[in-house]
Input
Amino acid sequence: MKSRILAVAVCALLSIWLSSSSMAQVGKPYIHDPSTIMMCNGKYYTFGTGSGGLISDDGWTWHSGAVRPGGGVAPDIILIGDRYYVTYAKGGGGLAGGHASNVHIMWTKTLDPQSPDFGFRDDTVVASSDGIEDCDAIDPAFLLDPTDGRLWLTYGTYFGFIRIVELDPKMGLRMPNNQLLNIAIDCEATAMMYRDGWYYLLGTHGTCCDGPNSTYNIVVGRSKKVTGPFLDNMGMDMLKGGGKFFVGASGRFVGPGHFGLLDLGDGVQKFSCHYEADLDQGGRSVLGIRPLLWKGGWPIAGDNFKAGTYEIQSERSGYALELAVDFVRMAGGMRFFRPAPDEPVKPIPFQELAEVSKNWPTGNIDIRIGDYMFRPHQKWTITPVADVGGYPGSPYFKITIAGTDRALAATADAEVVADSAFTGNPEQLWRIDQLIDGTYRIMPKAVPNSKESLALTAVGGSTPTLTKFDPRSDKAHWNFRTP
Output
């Protein structure tokens, strides 16, 4: 939460459905300063400034209902053992609050407010600022170090330094006699994560709480030690204002801030944030979820998949997913039967659907993988489907041959076919997740008569099927190319 402006978020308007340019969550995803997204009993939760938060059954459609006592600003959450620890700040933030603030921690056995086990306990102050020192103790965030199990908390805003303090992972209390350390400046709403021997510090930079005029963006530095120094890609210390750009305004979304890691496993990582303003939703602050990619040891903000017409290309072979139909030759002749040199040169048009589809079978058609030659049976139109749910960051899609209603579908034999028409059944709905290397995983919402989660896989140079996803194998990795 920006120290110079007091944020007030009142969200009570109807949601809108996804358009080709709008990729925020749907439902009522209105929130400011969201915590890391956490799962509990099959549902997703995030808390924001104020006393409440959002709940989702699938990570795509969100509504209010999460309960967090204490009020305050910019909470975060972590699961350790059977306890969900929640941290938040009271006071500070500038203006009426000044810069005197306290960071609190409390815990509960469940996030479900309807459960008999629900209830927050042991609300304790673990860090403070007096309003005079060069720190404003708000915007706290957890890191549980996967290398040694130690628990850390970062906090602070533009008013002074970002600090780190160690906590007891068994009780959530501050470790005795530890030293507060300054690790960054000129940012706020920090978060930390660990990957491949590096600790990454992500900080929100710019101005907030001014709707479409907010300039929030997120920067990052890394260190071999959890306590820093955190350097950017140019070697500048974040204690001296360094920070590699991670994500800023794009499309119809202004002011991303408050990074949270959402690791879904199998090479799929995403991050949450809020956008200070979604221009398609009246400039309200909304929850965002986007792919998290990695390149050269640095995190990269990916983009959620967008509707369009594509070649679906196998990373394994570079070949294209296509209908198993007869090849139709294009005009132009063979090499040794070309027009005379004095004849005018005429462009050869692309094949049109009507030229080749008249001999296609009327029922279901098998699917294969073949050399891509920009032919109609290799062009797929991918469209989001309303009112069928989704998954973190995106809705389910239908995948049809361009210009037709012929839909890609999973079969009870764990194979793929092109059904003669789109029905909206689960086997025709597809989840498309971008992987950390930038390629994609493609999965049906359901396989008939099966409870397994299977992914589209190129088991041979020309044979697609559905198998358990292996993130280490290019067989189950795909790309989308514009024809």
User: Anything to note?
Assistant: The first strand starts at residue 26 and ends at 27.
